[in-house]
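Could you show me just one protein sequence together with its fold in token form as a worked example?
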Amino acid sequence: MATVRTSITTNAELFKRAESAAKKLGVSLSSLFASALREFLAQEENRQHLQRLNMVADKLPPDERAVPVGMKRRQREIVTAEFRRRRDDASAAP
């Protein structure tokens, strides 16, 4: 995969926290930032997917909403579990 060099600006405290986390995890700052960006984009994709599902469910007649409401709850559980799994995997990574 091709790489791209970029520059970001952040406050000093956040940068110190990122440096500390990278050192603790044994990864470079670039790797930490890339991992955080991947995680953010995955969460955003899941959020948009859930929003689309909710929009469809909201258009259903009231008597047909019971199943979609359950589906919304299950989707939220899946997204939350996936977020926690990825967060825990990232924390455990050397």
